[in-house]
User: What shape does this take?
Amino acid sequence: MTQSQPPDTDDALFLIEDQPDEHHQPKDSWRILIVDDEPDVHEATVLALRDLTIDAHSLDFLHAYSASQAYDLLADNPDVAAILLDVVMESEDAGLALIRRIREDLDRRAVRIILRTGQPGYAPEIETIRAYDINDYKTKSEMTRVRLFTTLTVAIRSYRQLCQLEMSRRGLELIISASTGLAKRRALHHFSEGVVTHLCALLDIAPEGLVCVASAPTGEKSPWLIAAAGRYRHLIQSPLHELPDAEIRNALEQCLTAKSHLFDPMTCLYFDVQGTQGVAAYLDVAYPLDRVNRNLLEIFCANVTVGFENVLLHEQLLDSAYYDPFLHLPNRARLIHLIDERKDGEQDDTLALIDLDDFAEINAALDHHFGDQVLRAVAYRLGETFQPPTLIARVTADAFCLLGPSAAIDRYTIEQIFATPFDLQDRSIRISATASLIRVGPGPTRGADLLKDASIALKQAKRLHRGRAIAFTEDLGLAARERIRLLTDLRSAFHAERLHLAFQPLVDLATGSVVGAEALLRWTTEEGDVIPPDRFIPVAEHSGLMIALGEWVLRTACDQLKRIIELGHTGFRMAVNVSQAQFREPDFISILERVLHEHEIDPKRIELELTESIAIGQIASTAAKIAEIRRMGVSVALDDFGTGYSSLSVLKQLGVDRIKIDRAFVQELGHSSDNGIADLVVALGRQMDLGTIAEGVETEEQRRYLMERGCKDGQGYLFGRPMSSDAFEAWMADRL
Assistant: This one.
């Protein structure tokens, strides 16, 4: 080791008067901070230590003339090795206070501090050394050049040792962290990429020019690049011989051949991974690695080698589980997984199931070896025809699957693949195949179910269109048939007057008095089965039947309202749900006026309930129609507020009279610590001068909570379930 260069005189430090060289800024040096309020001390210190080296490093000086200035310099210069610090500066204990700030506020534990004072009485030596983390404590009068140099040398060597210990600690932490993080990476490429990243962090170098190379088992292919950073990143998955830098290429090859680390002149790490000829990583390190760094790298490599072996084993298991061993194509399990991944995306994909006709007969007549050649030939032609991103899978012994963009997968292209004979064993053979095509779209259908639907469709195709590719949407067909059946039954029920209205009371939450009712459409089949509204109403809306149904509901509700009023319930209001399709009808307003006039109903006694979806894309026209309805005297409520698309801006533009709190938010009351949504809707109604109605009130606690928050009306099982017309009239009669 190069020894420190000692001074050649023992003159008292403060008798030296030569001026230091202000412009000398050594490149590789120890940074020393001089903190003293006397400029002469700075000049004398620099001059005494000028041109001296400590362990082959020059000295570079920073200057501060107060404790506060020193603190700022230290905050901006984290590489200061030692501080020559005066005790008394702007205050009697300025130096001592600075020591605490350095250790506690800046958390600079490694920097060494040499305390100097011209007034030792202010800080007794023994007590000061005991109380403060300092290297030495000297009076200025005793600091000769030799003593200063010796003290500074000891301090800097201590600093270096502390830095090495810290580096070792940090390196071990990084290795532990790397082991944990890398364990989560299963793919070889991702794992190797993580190795590169963690090596950069361990050596504190930029991720530039790092390369991981894997050598496959003997007899397979030559080493290839599996992870890189910086200028070599574009070479990932390329053979090693394509690496443009010959020196790095040779170093990696030497590392793999020698099966050991190389540290001179380049740094290459070797990972003895079982099942391969090894893995090597080149590090673009611009400085020689010391013993500490080498030890850390060896520990890192030992840990990572096990990780490489686990990743390779994991890939082998995945290969066995998800790939066909004969053609090395994705198998049924892998295909199902990929369908599940893709079906919820935005791309328009198609799944094609292709079955080779009479393949069992080919195997029986021409032996299994010929059958294997048939499979290879079909797989090859499929691969030539359908390029990525289309996926080709083998799902059964004689069936293939295509999964890819609908624009690429079509009936004609599939049929053309089998239109040309296959040349096998010097013979030309025609192979027939039947295929079914199904669109892959978002929805709850799982990949396994979609493949099952494709199989059902394929069976139908084999029975009806053998040798051809037919586009089937079996799931959509089943749904369409179910909708048609439901619509047919609904039309019959409508004309046979098997539809009816149920009425659920609206109650003043404070007084308990009935203020109105909501008319609810119900359908009970001839067999007595109740069809939920959320099943038949969407069908009615899409078919156009909802227009006629909606008018019938309005008329029936007005009939009931008139009877209720005649029974003496003045001030009663009837809430009627209006569907989007019904509301969009150009003559909706005129129908409403005509029905109210025919039944002699005061428009103030009718409230229309609209859903938030009515406003989508047509806010202006919707707001205008609502305004016209309100001018008639009919009130408008926004149903299920907060569950759809409304914003505060939309609510203001629509200009409704009331908002209804959805039952989901009401049900949370008393069961969750967060009642915020219900509170928010009530507060919003109060702020905008809108009435509020709570749906689904089932407990006294919910009623009391909503009432106390300012919600006026409510409906739910606490007050009454939906009732038939006769039952509701009897129920109301009891409340006169």
Remarks:
- Residues 1-27 have pLDDT under 50 and may be disordered.
- Residues 145-182 form the longest helix (38 residues).
- The domain at 484-733 is CATH 3.20.20.450 (TIM Barrel).
- The longest strand covers residues 514-524.
